[in-house]
Write a structure and sequence with these properties.
It contains 33 helices and eight strands. The chain is mainly alpha-helical. Among the domains are: about 150 residues, 3-Layer(aba) Sandwich (Rossmann fold), CATH 3.40.50; about 60 residues, no CATH class; about 80 residues, Orthogonal Bundle (Arc Repressor Mutant, subunit A), CATH 1.10.10; about 110 residues, no CATH class. The strands form two sheets. It has a five-stranded parallel beta sheet, with helices on both faces. Strands 6-8-7 form a three-stranded antiparallel beta sheet. A hairpin with a 2-residue loop joins β7 and β8. The longest helix is centred in the middle third of the chain and has 20 residues. The chain is elongated. InterPro entries: P-loop_NTPase (IPR027417), TPR-like_helical_dom_sf (IPR011990), TPR_rpt (IPR019734). It holds the Pfam family TPR_12.
Length: about 675
């Protein structure tokens, strides 16, 4: 065996997996085949170190001895044929050179005969195929074979092989390896930089050992200096190449050279994808191939340990592998981000058409799918798809914006509306819309800029930042009027009304809602008219003008029913239930809220579900059931608390006021109608 590497760290789970495989075969007395375990992972992840360390620690379990062979499978020009390895094994077992057969089949037969009844450990390192390994497997059930490879070697499953996947070290253990190799006293005051260095090394043991060795041989260097050197992605692989040994670049080159032409092209182009998780559809868009072709190529890369499959149809590059792929020449790579951005835009649009089918959009992509079957069965399913991919969508949007692909950037931003409206990712909402507005402005698309300013204003309204919301809406009104976009003008007026209502100026709010209602009516947008009646009704209700509120809310309710907008009707029902409850119609109010709750339970939005619970709390409070009211508010905060914003502040204030009333019965009731 080669020597155990210095500073071998962690890998407890992998060592236990090897223990389990060996123990399982020892217990299987009826099974006459040896235990075979394949350790799979990318180059530099520490497969050989694991296998050798386990072998040395378990030498006593194998009284017949240990055999080691490096098959050099990822050095195609010097890969070891199985007959060469087998000949070496036979000679090591005492077979004289002149008795070693020339033909592989005869060698294998002699090997099985020689090892019969032995308790032998074989470590077969750097194998490239099952065919290279299969002749090296002895016949005795007392033997154990540990194979390492960057490929899965599925063909060995027929030999009863188990598979142990190796990933980069967890952050804690990567930091531990660096600390041990450099010295604890040396890095005692630089833990943050050590953690950063571990990340820049991709937590690959080979890179961590190189970084540690460079620091250890340069005692005056602070860790921060090494961090600064590795921040330059163009030089990182070179800096992490061991002196006098195969470089990381060469390690990855050998894996790349074994790929089919299709997988090699996929490797080069998909490396340009700015997100974390590459899925089949995005890869197909990047290469302009079918989904089946993309799936086959991605699986080949995963089998070669150049990608990690993190879920069905979803793959991820290791950071250093991505750098290697990006350094490979391919003129087509400059088209990748726009292609993937276009794919996301179409998927997002089709998801949004399920979440809010009747919403007006500036982007014309929707028109392509008017007569297409829905891509998702429910709005909740569509929202889940959008939410799961949000980090990747944002990465694509920001890269698209940086590349000045402005038409794509603002459309991606507009397509985030449904997700942000339902899930309230406020920080990301603001960040993405600042980028989207800048993109729309650069390509002089006033209507798109007005639309995005209104979308941004809604985030500010939800956060209670009314001045910021008004500023965006006033700019949107100016842009909309200049571009002749009555629809955008109406939306901006509506949100100016919401800002006025938030500040307590109900008269001004009703005036602005009324102006917007007129425009919606002139444009023939029934849903918009219904929404504005709802807004006016809610403002009147908050101002204490219950009769006027009920009139507008009933008008809105009828319109929502006529156009089949069940969610819009459910939102409006919350206010009607409050009116009924204040009039003493508790049973009717509860019945209305239960209908609304059924709609929002299917919406996929915890925020809307929390709105119903707050309304239930108000009804319970009016009924005198303060325990139930408190329970509803606590559930509402559990649902919407993580989102933050004005909605959460109001629910907390209501709960605090309720608790104060319980402790001090003479306290006045909290304000209602929010």
């Amino acid at each position: 065996m080669p020597p155990v590497p210095a500073y071998f760290t962690s890998r407890t789970a992998e060592l236990e997996a090897l223990d389990s495989a060996a123990a399982g075969r020892e217990d299987a007395s009826a099974d006459r085949s040896p235990a075979v375990t394949v350790v799979v992972g990318p180059g530099g992840v520490g497969k050989t170190a694991l296998a050798v360390t386990w072998a040395v620690r378990n030498a006593g379990r194998f009284p017949s001895g240990q055999l080691y062979a490096d098959l050099r499978g990822f050095s195609p020009e010097t890969a070891v044929p199985p007959e060469d390895a087998l000949g070496a094994f036979l000679r090591a077992l005492g077979v004289s050179p002149e008795r070693v057969p020339v033909e592989l089949a005869e060698q294998a037969a002699l090997f099985r005969t020689t090892t019969a009844g032995m308790r032998l450990l074989l470590v077969v390192d750097n194998a490239i195929s099952a065919a290279q390994v299969r002749p090296l497997i002895p016949a005795s059930s007392g033997c154990v074979v540990v194979v390492t490879s960057r490929l899965r070697l599925d063909g060995l499953h027929a030999e009863g092989a188990r598979f142990v996947d190796m990933a980069p070290l967890p952050e804690k253990h990567a930091v531990e390896l660096l600390t041990r190799s450099v010295g604890e006293s040396r890095v005692a005051g630089e833990l943050s930089d050590v953690t950063t260095l571990a990340a820049l090394c991709g937590r690959l043991p080979i890179a961590l050992r190189v970084a540690g060795a460079r620091l250890a041989s340069r005692p005056t260097w602070p860790v921060a200096r090494m961090v600064a050197e590795l921040r330059d992605e163009r030089l990182r692989l070179t800096k992490l190449s061991p002196v006098g040994e195969a470089s990381l670049t060469a390690t990855f080159d050998s894996s790349y050279s074994a790929l089919s032409p299709h997988a090699a092209r996929l490797y080069r182009l998909v490396s340009e994808y700015p997100g974390l998780t590459v899925e089949v559809g995005a890869a197909a868009a990047a290469l302009r191939v079918s989904g089946t072709e993309a799936a086959d190529g991605l699986q080949e890369l995963a089998d070669a340990s150049l990608l990690e499959e993190i879920r069905e149809g979803g793959y991820r590059f290791h950071d250093l592998v991505r750098l290697h792929a990006r350094a490979l020449p391919d003129d087509e790579r400059f088209e990748v981000v726009p292609r993937i951005a276009t794919w996301y835009l179409h998927r997002m649009t089709r998801a949004n058409m399920v979440v809010i089918p009747m919403r007006w959009r500036v982007s014309t992509v929707r028109a392509r799918y008017e007569d297409s079957p829905a891509l998702f069965a429910t709005g909740a399913e569509a929202l889940e798809w959008l939410d799961e991919r949000l980090p990747d969508i944002i990465a694509v949007l920001e890269e698209t914006s940086a590349l000045r692909q402005d038409e794509l950037a603002w459309q991606l931003c507009e397509a985030l509306w449904e997700l942000f409206l339902y899930r309230k990712h406020y920080q990301l909402w603001i960040r993405t819309h600042e980028a989207g507005i800048a993109a729309a402005h650069r390509c002089a698309h006033a209507i798109a800029e007005a639309r995005l300013r209104c979308q941004l204003a809604r985030a500010y309204l939800d956060l209670g930042r009314f001045e910021a919301a008004e500023s965006e809406c006033l700019k949107a009104v100016e842009l909309a009027k200049g571009a002749g976009s009555r629809h955008n003008e109406s939306v901006a007026l509506d949100q100016l009304g919401m800002a006025a209502q938030g500040r307590g100026d109900f008269e001004r709010a009703v005036e602005l809602f009324g102006q917007s209602l007129v425009i919606e009516g002139e444009l023939g947008i029934d849903r918009g008219v219904a929404q504005r009646h709802r807004r006016i009704g809610e403002a009147f209700l908050q101002a204490g003008r219950t009769a006027d509120a009920a009139r507008h809310l009933r008008l809105g309710q009828e319109l929502f029913k006529d156009i089949g907008d069940v969610k819009g009707e459910a939102e409006l029902t919350l206010s009607l239930a409050r009116i009924d409850a204040r009039a003493g119609e508790i049973t009717a109010a509860k019945r209305e809220l239960e209908r609304a709750a059924a709609v929002f339970d299917e919406s996929g939005s915890a925020v809307y579900q929390s709105d119903v619970l707050v309304a239930f709390a108000e009804v319970a409070e009016l009924e005198g059931d303060f325990g139930a009211a408190r329970g509803h508010l606590i559930k509402a905060l559990d649902l919407c608390g993580p989102t933050g914003g004005l909605r959460v502040e109001r629910a907390r204030a209501r709960l605090a006021a309720l608790d104060a009333r319980r402790d001090h019965p003479q306290q006045p009731e909290p304000a209602s109608g929010e």
